[in-house]
UniProtKB/TrEMBL annotation, chain A:
Top-level taxon of origin: Bacteria
Pfam families per record: Epimerase (PF01370)
Species for this entry: Melittangium boletus DSM 14713
Record protein name field: UDP-glucose 4-epimerase
Domain NAD-dependent epimerase/dehydratase: from-to ranges: 3-224
Matches recorded under SUPFAM superfamilies: NAD(P)-binding Rossmann-fold domains (SSF51735)
Amino acid sequence: MKVLILGLGGAVARRVALGLHERGHTVIGIDTRPWKEAPRGIEMHTVDLRKRAAEDVFRTRRPDAVVHMATVTSLRVQGEERHRINLGGTRVVFEHCRTYGVKHALFIGRHTFYGAAPDSALYHTEDEPPKELASFPELADLVAADLYASTALWRTPELATSVLRVCYTLGPSAQGTLATFLRGRRVPLVAGYDPLFQFMHEDDVASAIVLAVEKRPRGVFNVAGPQPLPLSVIVREAQRVPAPLPMAVLRQLIGRFGLPRLPPGALYHLQYPIVVDARAFQAATGFTHRYNEVQTVQSFLDAHPTPPSHREQLRHKLETLGVVKS
Amino acid sequence: MSRSEVKERLERLELPFNAYGVDPYGVSRWHLGVIYEALTFFYRHYFRVRCHGIEHVPARGRGMLVGNHSGGVAVDGMMVIASCFLEADPPRLAQGMAEKFVNAMPLASIWSSRCGQFPGLPENATRLLEEERLLLVFPEGARGTAKLYPQRYDLVDFGTGFMRLALKTRTPIIPFGFLGGGAAIPTVANLYGLGKALGMPYVPVTPYLLPLPLPVPLEIHYSEPMVFEGTGNEEDTVIQGYVEQVKARIADIIDQRRSERWREAEKP
């Protein structure tokens, strides 16, 4: 099968590409970020998805399946540009799929779509609407892109569409929302709250996407692996320093003193859980995860040990300069 | 004594804890240990709870404990949870369907969820029952805890959601009567305005002002399981009829036990 992966520069997308390549599929990729060490046999096009050159790839290579992973998750990219990438890009992808006879389109979305709220069900199912979006407008474009992709199920019935809402990823690459959040030495928590976080190893996410490409399930599916863990447990096991702060204080300090930068709406995700029920995906594809929650956290820790404290860093610099002796 | 007993019973609690001592719903073995130690003290020594009919609580598999509210704060729920842990064999975790405000409050949010007490949503309840858990339901809701001292043995209207859920999931209902909570927290008024300001339905007021429970003996009486046939999509009148049967059973338990106590008191 000829598979076109959009957003091949990402860590998970690369794992998907390698997985598909290993299984004998022809893999083509598009991203503005080059992949210099791409293995032979994976065709990489360093172009913008919304430009004519990307359409040429669709027109000339005629893929059987398209995996759309070219959405921006990072909350650092804001405003018009983010909307253009996530919404405009998704629209372009489905237009090209229809025009050039693609048989199967996969949209890789996020489980945060369901929103965090104190009165939410603990396990969300696929038929639930987005909640609490008003308190987290930064997510609006991702939700809109997800819903736009979902409408392809009835707008273009000849195109098999799979919308996968994947939980947080964690692993050696330290890419993704949760991994970025845990990367620093101190991890902010909202005092008095400890939500469950659901995450999967990067390799398991890639396996799930590869399986979805091959099984071609039509519909919207939550994708999850091992059981969720309380955020405090993840922080502790990742050997980070938890910094529980009252909400009012946290709002002021976020992005300073070594704490990660987060938009105000993201703080709700530090109070209330978003956990998804992935039974429908398991039933449709037979997917089972390989890494449990313990191994997943450990893989992140092995690749990214606790960063040294400021004092240790300063001491190391002084030792390097010969000011003090070890 | 109680610490080792709690530890031993915690080991026998049949929940799928992972290597970190957490189950798929976030229930934590460590948090349960702390809370059960405290509950054991209150159950055995402070309230001297007398529990009857614990054999009616299924040892394994789904079940719905349905009872009356008694007392202005959640003493009734906590003592029922303690009785299922301390009296049942093997011990069971009764998972309450808490009011939604609990999950929004700092600290209460952590402790309620780590101890398996989740917001009272049909989705949560259905899932827990399908996972063969034991659910604790007070169909009177917040109106039940708002009863003042003179109405402490009355039952207010029952909601019908629990019955539809039991029918849909084919869950046996284990009715229970809870006695003594009204005397433990003799509520003389409820401050609804203050409650709203604090994010709660109301704040109960006792003659000594604070809603702290008095060391009054409490009683829990479990009755035989009631099994109803249906799909949960029946007409309201049918569901209401079933609900009335459960309500009547609970009222009978309370009346019977109250008359027994009177007879005991009249004996020379």
